[in-house]
């Protein structure tokens, strides 16, 4: 079967994940340690990105890009009226939608617990003693 | 908006589990049923188009595919089972054109006491295990975990025979339960322990919303 697209973890999803290890109070954002990253072009939908902006934690996205090794692709802070700025939205689109982590791990910033990513799927399962 | 019949035709393409796991109750929500439920959520309550959706116990991905086809902004499927997620990805990549679906492996019950996702999802869909095989009450555990993670509504399926109990438990979690439909759900002969070839169970399709007092 021809697969049109494999759904690997992108930064839009990383932006929502926290560490839920028992006792951890500040488990966000998870540190990305990527060993395999792919960039894939995705159709730009400015209305969608504009809507998503209110749901995105911008500093975490900036950090994520830094961990991926693309530090200078995003402004440190969203510009004023960013929801209407096409150039800004394109950059946000690229960061959120076009970078995929295939292999690596997500590290809890507090406990250091690593959640592996393989085949593009983060594994957030905890052991019984970590719940 | 996509018509109900069109949605159903699309969802009929969703591949089923080759070797469903009994202990995870991996039977697929029938395409006709999935299409009806999703279409109702979108047309009656405007809970899908432009929304963020979490699909708990996503399995083969039929609800995520449907939500995405109806225009959800972003859909995340979560499941405990790696094989389910492999199938989920296969189905979504085949059926969903918009790159708006992703998945994650986790045990949603581990999100009951600890922190959940950073942001809440607008809407949660789930067809939880009914807890018929040695894991009684698991559908309530799913619901309890879901209450930490949503803004507008949770849509879920529960056995009609447990309705009174479900509504009572929901109330204690700060949820109003509104039964949207009573369904007869045909479980095919997915699992060998089913004695008859095909077995109908009665299921409620319930929309849960925060009770007024708990609205922040």
From TrEMBL, chain A:
A biological process from GO: tRNA methylation
GO molecular function, one term: methyltransferase activity
CDD domains in the record: Trm112-like
InterPro entries (UniProt xref): Trm112, Trm112-like
Pfam families, A to Z: Trm112p (PF03966)
Single GO cellular component term: perinuclear region of cytoplasm
Key words, A-Z: Cytoplasm, Methyltransferase, Nucleus, Transferase
Location of the protein in the cell: Cytoplasm, Perinuclear region; Nucleus, Nucleoplasm
Family: Belongs to the TRM112 family.
Protein name: Multifunctional methyltransferase subunit TRM112-like protein
Organism: Phallusia mammillata
Automatic annotation (TrEMBL), chain B:
Organism superkingdom: Eukaryota
Pfam name, any one: PrmA
InterPro entries: DNA_methylase_N6_adenine_CS, rRNA_MeTrfase/Polyamine_Synth, SAM-dependent_MTases_sf
Keyword match Methyltransferase: yes
Glycosyltransferase listed as a keyword: no
Molecular function in Gene Ontology: nucleic acid binding; rRNA (adenine-N6-)-methyltransferase activity
Entry keywords, A to Z: Methyltransferase, Transferase
Protein name listed in UniProt: Methyltransferase-like protein 5
Record organism: Phallusia mammillata
Gene: Mettl5-002
């Amino acid at each position: 079967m021809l697969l049109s697209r494999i759904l690997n973890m992108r930064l839009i999803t990383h932006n929502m994940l926290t560490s839920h290890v028992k006792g951890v109070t500040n488990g966000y954002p998870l540190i990305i340690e990527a060993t395999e990253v792919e960039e894939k072009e995705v159709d730009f939908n400015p209305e969608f990105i504009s809507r998503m902006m209110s749901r995105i934690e911008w500093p975490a996205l900036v950090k994520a890009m830094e961990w991926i090794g693309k530090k200078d692709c995003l402004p440190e802070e969203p510009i004023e009226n960013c929801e209407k700025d096409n150039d800004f939205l394109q950059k946000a689109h690229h960061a959120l939608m076009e970078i995929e982590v295939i292999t690596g791990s997500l590290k809890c910033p507090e406990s250091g617990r690593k959640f592996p990513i393989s085949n593009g799927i983060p594994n957030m399962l905890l052991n019984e003693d970590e719940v | 908006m996509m018509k109900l019949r069109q949605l159903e035709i699309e969802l009929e393409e969703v591949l089923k589990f080759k070797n469903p796991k009994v202990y995870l109750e991996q039977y697929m929500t029938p395409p006709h049923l999935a299409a009806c439920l999703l279409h109702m959520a979108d047309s009656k309550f405007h809970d899908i188009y432009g929304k963020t959706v979490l699909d708990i116990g996503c399995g083969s991905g039929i609800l995520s595919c449907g939500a995405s086809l109806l225009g959800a902004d972003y859909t995340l499927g979560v499941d405990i089972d790696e094989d389910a997620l492999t199938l989920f990805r296969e189905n979504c990549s085949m059926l969903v054109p918009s790159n708006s679906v992703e998945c994650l492996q986790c045990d949603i019950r581990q999100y009951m006491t600890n922190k959940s996702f950073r942001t809440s999802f607008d809407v949660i869909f789930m067809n939880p295990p009914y807890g018929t095989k040695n894991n009684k009450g698991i559908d309530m555990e799913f619901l309890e975990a879901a209450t930490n993670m949503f803004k507008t509504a949770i849509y879920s399926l529960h056995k009609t025979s447990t309705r009174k109990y479900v509504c009572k438990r929901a109330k204690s979690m700060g949820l109003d339960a509104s039964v949207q439909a009573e369904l007869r759900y045909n479980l095919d002969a997915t699992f060998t322990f089913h004695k008859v070839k095909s077995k109908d169970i009665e299921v409620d399709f319930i929309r849960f919303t925060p009770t007024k007092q708990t609205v922040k």
